[in-house]
């Protein structure tokens, strides 16, 4: 478990302001490629505190944010997140935050939603939830085990991100985490 040495408010403001600045940034080049990090946790060089962690040890996007063919109907529809290749492996908190919701529904299956200041991140289609509502998390903390629940065709991790009320591509957060190396 990481020690929280900086205030959550400062961390949230840093992430939120960077997300706003990156909304027009070019997309992370992970389509059909894999992103590996020697360590999934990035740290602030001046303090040594964790800043962010990728949600999986290896990022491989299997279905991108935006328009796509629905895997069940074949019709064009909006995909509100990213699908990442994952087979029953740990999913990690990306930033300091709080678990605001856990549950199960027909579409998302088992899910966890984390609040990181003005950003919320939902992890869907899980096989197991590790955290409980109200828990505080740090970057790299295991929050769930990926799976194949809900409206899903195979094991994977679906991530949906909101900045205030706007749905944004999780690529923005991934770019931020990779940029602070």
Report on this model:
- This protein is mostly beta strands.
- The protein has 2 helices and 16 strands.
- The strands form 4 sheets. Strands 5, 8, 9, 10, 11, 12, 13, 14, 15 and 16 form a 10-stranded antiparallel beta sheet that branches. A two-stranded antiparallel sheet has the order 1-4.
- The N terminus is likely disordered.
Order of SSEs: HEEEEEEEEEEEEEEEEH
Please report the distance between the alpha carbons of the first and last residues: 20 Å
Report helical residue fraction: 10-25%
Radius of gyration: 15 Å
Overall pLDDT level: 76
Count, helices = 2
Derived structural class: mainly beta
Shape: globular
Strand content: 35-45%
Unreliable spans are 1-41
Number of strands: 16
Largest sheet: 10 strands, antiparallel
Q: What oligomeric state do the depicted chains represent?
A: single chain
What features would you highlight for this structure?
single chain; 181 residues; mainly beta; two-stranded antiparallel ribbon; 13% helix; 41% strand; disordered N terminus
How is the topology of this model organized?
Elements: H1 8-22, E1 35-36, E2 41-43, E3 50-53, E4 58-59, E5 61-63, E6 66-69, E7 76-79, E8 82-85, E9 90-92, E10 97-105, E11 109-116, E12 119-129, E13 136-137, E14 142-146, E15 156-163, E16 166-168, H2 171-179
Antiparallel strand pairs: 1-4, 2-3, 5-8, 6-7, 8-15, 9-14, 10-11, 10-13, 11-12, 12-14, 12-15, 15-16
Helix pairs in contact: 1-2
């Amino acid at each position: 478990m990481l020690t929280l040495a900086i205030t959550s408010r400062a961390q949230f403001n840093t992430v939120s302001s960077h997300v706003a600045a990156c909304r027009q940034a070019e997309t992370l080049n992970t389509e059909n490629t894999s992103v590996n990090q020697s360590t999934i946790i990035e740290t602030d060089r001046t303090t040594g505190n964790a800043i962010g962690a990728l949600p999986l040890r290896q990022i491989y996007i299997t279905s991108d944010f935006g328009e796509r063919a629905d895997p069940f109907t074949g019709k064009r529809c909006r995909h509100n997140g990213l699908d990442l290749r994952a087979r029953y492996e740990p999913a990690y908190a990306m930033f300091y935050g709080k678990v605001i919701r856990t549950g199960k529904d027909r579409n998302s299956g088992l899910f966890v939603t984390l609040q990181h200041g003005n950003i919320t991140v939902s992890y869907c289609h899980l096989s197991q939830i590790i955290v409980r509502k109200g828990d505080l998390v740090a970057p790299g903390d295991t929050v769930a085990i990926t799976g194949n629940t809900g409206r899903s065709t195979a094991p994977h991790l679906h991530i949906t991100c909101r900045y205030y009320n706007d749905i944004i591509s999780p690529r923005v957060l991934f770019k931020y985490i990779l940029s602070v190396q």
